[in-house]
Amino acid sequence: MAERNKATVEREEALLMSYQDSVDRVPLLWIHGYPLSNLLWEFQVTDLADIARQITPDLRGHGRTESAPPPYSMALLADDCVRLLDHLGFEGPVVIGGLSMGGYVALEICRRYPQHVAGLILAATRAGADSEAGKAGRDQAAELVKDQGVGAIVEAMLPKMLAPETYAEQPDLVEFVRDMMMETSVEGVVGALAAMRDRVDSTGDLPLIDVPTLVVHGAEDQLIPVSEAEILATSLPDAELVIVPGAGHLLNLEQPDAFNDAVRVFLERYYED
Ligand code: MLT
């Protein structure tokens, strides 16, 4: 079983960072999206424990990791993750999996620390940067959370996080996601919004990321269209695309069996002896 842990990771300042770790298999770092936590990976931590050693940090300001003051950047979030890998003693590369904002962080790790990346799992994410309208929306959301608290962001985002049938058929999951989002601090929301607003366009980097990659996306994602996954899969030199039916943005929670099957096949093909 995975155990909850905390480690102090150091960049310019020390950060007491919460994370989970599990058994010694293919090393796999899962990076959650915004405004979520490592609870996002609960069905992967349990169901893939026989094949992957899964490390699931809470990013700064999210879940149980300390709430460091904003602004954050993708470089800072990538550094936090790599410092955690260093702390855990990883000398070789690991598979990096990221959902949505976690995918932005994963692509930043590819840029800054290619020696740490054995493969990628890019879930419900995109390579492009924010449009001008998107950047303005980040600033509006930051004002909203500063004025009205995290609940206002949760109420605005929650109706778009899942597929329509998930709201109807899995009410407990909807509440699980709401609770997870509510754990994010105001500083975490504001910091992540700045990091996403200012992230660079990774599209031009994709042809250079020559590691096996699984691109996986919910067919009914309301936040990031499937066309973004298609761009990733066609631009990355060694990628395969899996579209999960009946799933929205949080496909790994909504359809864990289909998601886990895709990950298992990918890991067995490339990383099992
Ligand atoms: C996420 O799920 O991480 C965010 O919705 C991504 C974004 O807003 O670009």
Question: If you had to describe this structure to a student in words, what would you say it looks like?
Answer:
The chain is an alpha/beta fold and 273 residues long. The chain has a single domain (8-271), classed as 3-Layer(aba) Sandwich (Rossmann fold), CATH 3.40.50. The protein has helices at residues 42-47, 74-87, 101-112, 132-148, 150-161, 164-169, 171-182, 186-197, 226-235, 251-254, 256-270, and strands at 3-10, 14-21, 26-31, 52-57, 94-99, 117-123, 213-218, 239-244. The longest helix has 17 residues, at 132-148. The two termini are 23 Å apart. The mean pLDDT is 95. Bound molecules: D-malate. D-malate (MLT) binds at residues 33-34, 100-101, 196, 223, 249.
Low-confidence stretches: none
Small molecules bound in the structure, each named once: D-malate
Q: How many strand segments?
A: 8
**Helical segment count:** 11
Determine Rg (CA atoms, Å): 17 Å
CATH architecture descriptor text? 3-Layer(aba) Sandwich
Give the H and E element order: EEEHEHEHEHHHHHEHEHH
- Largest β-sheet summary: 8 strands, mixed
Numbering strands along the chain, what is their spatial order in the largest sheet?
A: 1-2-4-3-5-6-7-8
Distance between the termini: 23 Å
Name of the CATH superfamily? Alpha/Beta hydrolase fold, catalytic domain
What fold name stands as the CATH topology?
Rossmann fold
Q: What's the number of structural domains?
A: 1
Helix content: 40-55%
Shape: globular
- CATH class wording: Alpha Beta
